[in-house]
Structure formats: C-alpha cells, structure tokens
From TrEMBL:
It comes from Micrococcus flavus. Residues 1-33 are annotated as: Disordered. Catalyzes the reversible reaction in which hydroxymethyl group from 5,10-methylenetetrahydrofolate is transferred onto alpha-ketoisovalerate to form ketopantoate. GO terms for cellular component: cytoplasm. It is found in: Cytoplasm. This is 3-methyl-2-oxobutanoate hydroxymethyltransferase.
C-alpha cells in the first residue's frame, strides 16, 4: 500500500473534501470488551460478528502511541514509508533493514494494537524460503505481530510457508504498489470480464494458504463485496468500498499532512498541513522579532 498519487488514479482527480463528522456515541459494551492486546483472533471475531475495525499506517513510536491510545485496532508499518518519510517516489527502494528499523519503533510505541509490517519489494518474492527469512526477521528483530505480503494466488506457497513457520500473514491483492511497473501505473484493478471471479479465486487461494486477512486496494466496491462474501477471514479495504471488515488509510492522507490532491477514497479528518505551517511561521516570526524566547523561557543564574 502506498500514498497513491491521485493524478495517476482514473476517476480520482478531484480533491477529497475536508470532513469533520459528528463522532458516533461510544459503544460501551464493545469498549468494555476490548482486549488488552488485539490479536488476529479478534479480527476474525469481528468478521464473524459483523463488526468492523480500523487500521492506520504509522512509522514511529510517537504516532503509534497516539493512534493506539485512540483505539485503532491495527497499525500498519507500510512500505509507504518510502513515499511519506524517506522522500522516494514509490515504495520500491525501501529495504528490509529499513522496515525492521521503523517497525521496531512502532512496536515500542504501541501497547494494545496489532502491529503488521509490510514485506518490502525484493525481500520475499524469490521463494517461500526467502519470505520465511524476511518474516522471521521482522518478528524477531522488530517485534511485529504479523506481516503483509503483496501478490495473488501465485504467492500462496509463500504464505503457507510463513504461516507454517509461525509468521501470521495478511495478504494484499488488487492494486499492489510494488508491481506498479507491471500493472502500468496506479490503476484500479478488478475491472472487466471475469475480474471478480479472478480476484475471488486469488483471495480464496491465499486464505487456504493460511492468510489471516486479505487486504484489497483500489478495486471496485462491488468486486470487494463479492470477495468479502466469499471468504471466511476478514478483509481490509483501501479504495475498496464499505463492505470490508476493516478499513486502512495512510495517516498523512487521513490527517491532511500533505498538500495537493488526494485519492478519492480518502476522507481527511484534519488539515495538519495548514495547522503545522501556521505554527512554524508563527515560531519563526517570534524568533525574528525577539519575542521568543521570553524571560520565562530562560534560567536564573
């Protein structure tokens, strides 16, 4: 999953409006029953009970702690760190070493959420054995609770091998950013004759291989609904409509930290780019005119 350039997504050229919906009343029963640590079994129970869960990307201890405290059930250390933090134009340059570094920070910041880390490009595709080695490293060195791997049914053996080795796997189908050059750019997947059947078959194969959940990115809502209905395990959507058990967004998109157009599937709950910009400009002006630091910001001899 990546911070998708809106200009490359057909039908996504309009900026998502800022939204500040009225918070729903707290569900006391559900809050009281919240587990001390979210595990994959709790996501399955949500699917079975017809409930939903929220998932957000995060790449550091501070935002991980903030999102964890807010009750977000799943934190994704996405290889979107390449776009959002490291300044790359895609996720492809991200290394396994970098994922271990950022994932460890998130694990140390979160006390309740399930932490899932992306397997970066080049770390798992070659063989099931390579996938196991990468997954085990993320669990041993970073302490994550699960990994996410992009790919269709051709990667079912990789999922099976990781699961057998004790590495829980969230599968990722539909648009897979690591394959952007094969797919011809950032394009909605799952369109055309037979597309629904192919995605359903792919998801089922990954489920049978042991995936505890299937994430779908940038697929038509009706297709995602069909996939969700065909699976026992929970699904997660990003640009996949409302039928999935969980929803995930890149946090910088969701909180409006970057300026410009955003994908049509993003709802912005704040405009942090404006807030931070105004605060920094105010700080600079105070420094330049000498009003900061003031006497109360200093120490006596």
């Amino acid at each position: 999953m990546s911070e998708t350039p809106a200009t490359d997504v057909p039908g996504a050229e309009t900026a998502a409006p800022y939204a500040s919906p009225t918070p729903a009343p707290a569900d006391a029963a559900r809050t009281a029953a919240a587990p001390a640590r979210v595990r994959t079994v709790h996501l399955q129970r949500a699917k079975d009970a017809g409930h939903r869960f929220a998932m957000l990307t995060t790449y550091d201890a501070m935002t991980a702690a903030l999102f964890d405290e807010a009750g977000v059930e799943v934190l994704l250390v996405g290889d979107s760190v390449g776009n959002t933090v490291l300044g790359h134009s895609s996720t492809l340059p991200v290394t396994l070493d970098q994922m271990v570094l950022f994932s460890g920070a998130v694990v140390r910041g979160a006390s309740r959420a399930l932490v899932v880390a992306d397997l970066p490009f080049g770390s798992y595709e070659a063989s099931p054995e390579q996938a196991v080695a990468a997954g085990v490293r993320l669990m041993k060195e970073a302490g994550v609770h699960a990994v996410k791997a992009e790919g269709d049914e051709r990667f079912a053996p990789h999922v099976a091998a990781m699961t057998a080795a004790g590495v829980p796997v969230m599968a990722h189908i539909g648009f897979t950013p690591q394959s952007e050059h094969v797919l011809g750019g950032y394009r909605v997947q799952g369109r055309g004759d037979g597309a629904t059947e192919r995605l359903v078959a792919s998801a089922r194969a990954l489920e049978e291989a042991g995936a505890f959940a299937v994430l779908m990115e940038m697929v038509p809502s009706a297709v995602a609904e069909a996939v969700d209905a065909a699976l026992r395990v929970p699904t997660v959507g990003i640009g996949a409509g409302p039928a999935t058990t969980g929803q995930v967004l890149v946090w910088q998109d969701m909180l409006g930290l970057r300026e410009g157009r955003v994908p049509r599937f993003v709802r912005q709950y704040a405009r942090l780019h404006e807030v931070v910009g105004e605060a920094v400009r105010a700080y600079r002006e105070d420094v330049l005119d000498g009003s900061f630091p003031a006497p109360e910001h200093g120490f006596e001899a």
